[in-house]
Write a structure and sequence with these properties.
Blueprint lengths: L1 E6 H8 L2 E3 L7 E6 L11 E4 L12 H6 L4 E4 L12 E4 L3 H13 L15 H12 L20
């Protein structure tokens, strides 16, 4: 997902993690990445090494470095090699770090938020509201349907 540019030091400040700056020429971030198979703009991506039921994001670090990714949020310090030509921020929980980064970004704006809840129809209602309100209001909305701890931030 694309974001306004931020540098790795700003991410470290928001997350409170321990910064390992091994590549100072690639510090600008414009993409957040949680799926190693969906790299877009590798040089400006920030990969969150999230552990799930079936995968450990730390297992993909070297492949992502080989693919040109230079910035990582990790929790397993043993998965990081100081010889990597990339930057890492070590945090307790990469998912929480992503949520903190999203909250920090959201707090820069003073615009009303509409939350749509329920078990069915949220995306349809979101799109209907956009269609109905876009003529009179400046609408900001997610480009897809994100209903998870990863997608919502």
């Amino acid at each position: 997902m694309s974001i306004p540019s931020i540098n790795i030091e700003q991410v470290q400040s928001v997350t409170g993690g321990e910064l390992h700056l091994n590549n100072s020429s690639h510090k600008i971030i414009t993409q957040l990445l949680t799926d190693s198979r969906k790299v877009v703009n590798a040089e400006s991506s920030l990969f969150f090494a999230i552990n799930g039921d079936n995968h450990n994001g730390h297992e993909f670090i070297s492949d992502l470095i080989n693919a040109g990714v230079f910035n990582f949020i990790i929790s397993d310090k043993t998965a990081w090699k100081e010889t990597y030509t990339a930057n890492a921020i070590v945090v307790t929980d990469p998912l929480l770090a992503m949520q903190q980064l999203a909250a920090s970004h959201r707090n820069r704006f003073r615009i009303p938020v509409i939350g749509i809840t329920g078990s069915n129809g949220k995306t349809v209602v979101k799109e209907w509201l956009y269609q109905l309100l876009r003529e009179d209001k400046n609408i900001v909305r997610s480009p897809k349907s994100y209903n998870s701890q990863i997608g919502v931030p």
